[in-house]
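Progress report, Aim 2. The chain analyzed during this reporting quarter is listed below.
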Amino acid sequence: MKLPFFLLALLLACGISPAQIIQPSLTPNSSQQKMISRSYGMFIHFGINTFSGKEWTDGTLAPSLYNPTELDTDQWAKCAKDAGMSYVILITKHHEGFCLWDSPHTEYDVASSPVKTNVVKAMAASCKKHGIKLGLYYSLWDRNWGDGVMRGNRADLSPQQSSDYIDYMKKQLTELLTDNGDICELWFDGGWVLPREDWQIESVYAHVKSLQPNCLVGVNWGIGEFGNPDFHAVHPNAYRIGQPIRYYPSDFRLGDPTLPEFPDVKHFSGPQGRLHYLPFETTVCLNKHWFWHPYDQGLRSIDELLPLYDHSTAQDNVLILNSPPNRKGLMDERNITRLKEFAAALGAQPGQTVPRNLAEFATAYADSVWTKSPGDWSAQSALDGNQKTRWASSKVDPTFIMQWEQAQTLDFVRIREFEERIEGFELQAHVDGKWTTLHQGKGIGPRLLIRFPRTTTTALRLKILKSAKEPSLHHIGAGLSK
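Predicted structure tokens for the chain:
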């Protein structure tokens, strides 16, 4: 299938090969496959809002308010690395328009503040040092630009203002994409303020690809309604095959902060109704808010995070977990500790990227399935990542098996039980034509990580030997951590 002529001509004029950008396809292209493989990263909200006590501000706060006295991007990158993450997405400019670098096209930036560090450049160096990828968030909406002509939640720009603003954006994107190494993703936000046509996304997309051909581009709330491509906002539970891509072209979907549905619709239409494959990047807050606030003392627990992770990284989708630096410019120690604990709960050894869940590629069987109430209680429900479903047995001592077409090498299994009912079990692997015991245990509970010597097998068997009531499992994962 061919690209629309207008986009092909624009890309060629920018010196971009069509092979470097998204094309109609029912399967992920090579750049999208790399995104899917990254799987798990950190969202970093930091800027003038950090010092305001508010999530959004309107572009009128004085730059002098921004004053991180111990700013340390190395600590941020190390935190992400130690958390088992493979990349970060850094806020470079949020809706208020404050830039975390010295942009010659605005005075609303770090150069006008007490701490003039180019945070974007520093973050790029820190990511390179710690061996993780860097992505950037850039708000399309800039409430400080042009004497606040976009200060409201909806704006009406003249043709000249619109042209000037797109020129301004391209200049800033050039700054971000030419002096900070390879950028894996560009995350646009705030598009609902103007009609979609005013953003000239096809021109902006081509500009980005001319600077960073392998950088994937996504726009928040990027799917429209049938017959109304600019409808805001279409949530994942309303996705249908062939719905229009609101901001075309895009390389992936965003619907911040919603979760993908099961099954996740992947195919959306560009010009002439051609279908494009778009993975979904989920955003979840570790704290209760995006930016750090002194009143935000809560952190999500491991038991909260596990189902969110399993749900968000299934179906070839990815998760970025937001962890905001504080007003000193440091990650709170409580965040660092919780993220390390979470990585361990996911099976990662210290310093290791969280392992891929290989159980997602297995087929599940059970000798008992609950049939006394309607719903999907099948064995496969324990492997699919869907936090809304689970496998349930109709007897107290069932056997559960997951099997692969090709042998897998594993050294851990993690299990999440629905209610604490299991009182005795045995985990076995099928090796050399016979079942070999890997572990014997009593209770499982809301999260259990079982480590065992590296084992190559085509099947695992969980024999539940004793249970207070009919057992039920929300999730079983398996992987290799060494």
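The longest strand covers residues 448-467. The chain has a mean pLDDT of 94. These observations will guide the mutagenesis work planned for the next reporting period.
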